[in-house]
Design a protein that fits this description.
The chain has 424 residues and is of the alpha/beta class. The chain has 16 helices and twelve strands. A five-stranded parallel sheet has the order 6-8-10-11-12. A three-stranded parallel sheet has the order 1-4-5. Strands 2-3 form a two-stranded antiparallel sheet. It binds beta-L-rhamnopyranose and manganese (II) ion (2 copies).
Length: 424
């Protein structure tokens, strides 16, 4: 049989592994691992999306939850519940058109709410995908006046972010086309480069522009920013304060997301995540519900990068989920706890040992080194960490016992009944 380039006889590899392998850590978790988990949990902050607390649905309809938030006050209040029981979610992402109905004029109101609920406004998300004008695109629209309208809105968002002391402006573009030949793909690249440069020029020092990509939906033939390569090139064209945003649900089925993350880390171009899970496309399911190993592998790439460079990364971890079946606050708590579990597992990887095993191409041991961390039960130590911070050991239980859900359900149902009655 012909040998491939790097192939070694089985025995040599096997003996090499046996000889080169270091002892795997004893017991369920050693001290180094416990410390790593502790540090990781101390550092992990997850931003919640305001829209995740509101009634949302599918393109076939909405199943209304009476407890869902419909005002910005209610969204802050709901987010504060998640933060109260997890201690990990001090910021709330805002969607300007849904949350700041009067734009910049609402900034003081938002500041007030932030103070009252102990939650800061987080990333500012422009909305250039709902108005009728955007039927054929926003920043990529062939009509210059529509491009102007979209850019003006994003520039307003930069000002809103400044007024609120927010760092990140995160536009997502629904731009694209449904049929071949109907739009000039290249012309639209130019419009995006021009537009994002203009937005970048308006950024204040320290602010960041996060460029999100998505392969399809609502456009089904071409999407203007369809993947990380396009987002990366556009961010580079925009300027040094622009980075790529990875929404975990915005990939094709078999795509290796952690490899994309590794590339973006290598080029110092990853600005943030939108976390969710999916089975098919942009399903927006709770994080890790379908494939927790995927999320673990992403966290591992980040923590391995940090371990190698001896420095923390600066990545905004955000949730982008909307739940139409699960209770919204519960789904957020579940997501945050899952993120903590998977991040903690990734923190237990013995990076030095793994590097050695990778170097010697000890495939089985290297894989087991990673996989072993995934299978560690980190829940007891997370409970200890919570206790030490004065947080509930079981966030979901404490939220359920708080009576908050029943209270807001009553209050919001009454209001809902009043508003529907007034239309009758
Ligand atoms: C998109 C994308 C954006 C989010 C909108 C509502 O699919 O993920 O991040 O703002 O949905
Ligand atoms: Mn997203
Ligand atoms: Mn999405």
């Amino acid at each position: 049989m012909k040998k491939r380039g790097n192939e070694k006889p089985y025995e040599e590899v096997f003996n090499g592994e046996a000889a080169g392998a270091q002892e795997a850590p004893e017991g369920p978790m050693n001290n180094i691992q416990s410390e790593a988990v502790w540090k990781a949990l101390d550092n992990l902050r997850i931003e919640l999306p305001s829209w995740g607390f509101a009634n949302t649905g599918t393109r076939f309809g909405k199943f209304v939850q009476f407890a869902a938030a419909s005002t910005i006050e209610e969204k802050f209040s709901d987010a504060a519940q998640v933060h109260a029981v997890t201690g990990a979610c001090p910021t709330l992402a805002l969607h300007v058109q849904w949350d700041l109905l009067n734009g910049l004029q609402d900034a003081d109101k938002v500041k007030d709410l932030a103070k009252r609920h102990g939650i800061k406004p987080g990333s500012i998300n422009p909305n250039v995908f709902e108005d009728q004008e955007y039927k054929y695109g926003s920043v990529g629209n062939p009509d210059a006046s529509i491009r102007r309208k979209a850019l003006n809105h994003i520039l307003d968002c930069v000002r809103i972010a400044e007024a609120l002391g927010c760092r990140d402006i995160s536009p997502w573009f629904a731009d694209g086309s449904n049929y071949p030949g109907t739009q000039s793909i290249r012309k639209r690249i130019g419009y995006f480069e021009e537009g994002l440069k203009e937005v970048h020029a308006a950024l204040r020092p320290g602010q960041r522009l996060l460029v999100e990509y998505k392969p399809f939906e609502p456009a089904f033939y071409h999407t203007d920013i369809a993947d990380w390569g396009m987002a990366l090139l556009l961010a580079k064209a925009a300027g040094p304060q622009a980075y790529v945003l990875v929404d975990t649900g915005h990939h094709y089925q078999a795509q290796n997301i952690e490899q994309i993350v590794a590339w973006l880390l290598h080029h110092k171009m990853i600005g943030g995540f939108h976390f969710n899970d999916r089975r098919y496309a942009d399903d927006d399911l709770t994080l890790g519900s379908i494939d927790p190993y995927q999320v673990f592998r992403i966290f591992h790439e980040i923590l391995a990068f940090e371990a190698e460079n001896g420095a923390a990364t600066d990545i905004a971890f955000m949730v982008d989920q909307s739940h139409n079946l699960k209770g919204k606050i519960e789904a957020m708590i579940q997501t945050v706890c899952t993120a903590q579990e998977l991040y903690a597992k990734a923190a237990t990887v013995d990076h030095a040992r793994l590097r050695g095993l990778q170097q010697s191409c000890s495939l089985v041991d290297a894989e087991e080194c990673l996989r072993g961390a995934f299978w560690l039960d980190v829940r007891p130590i997370i409970a200890e960490w919570r206790k030490s911070k004065g947080l509930p050991e079981d966030p979901m239980k404490v939220f359920r016992e708080s009576g908050y859900l029943e209270r807001v359900m009553r209050e919001r149902r009454d209001r809902h009944a009043r508003t529907t009655a007034s239309y009758a």
